[in-house]
Amino acid sequence: MTRILCRDFEYNLARNVKQNPKAFWRYCKSKMKNRSKLGDPKMADGKLTGDDETKDELLNSFFVSYSHMKIQITQSWKIDIRSKIVLT
Hints:
Elements: H1 2-15, H2 21-31, H3 52-75, E1 77-79, E2 85-87
Antiparallel strand pairs: 1-2
């Protein structure tokens, strides 16, 4: 029932956008609100970090280590001429 009501509301909103642009943009802004935030990550010693710079360093180190691990995994595989995968 609510899906049908929502669909009908959005349809009418889109149909009447020329006559009532304010309602359209109010609806768009309500859907674009950021409702969730990134929580404080734990450092290696188990303490929570509240500093933005420390969060940046932790996330950067995590993603850099992940991308290096991914590169090492893909470089350890080799495809021979008969297109069989061989572990080197």
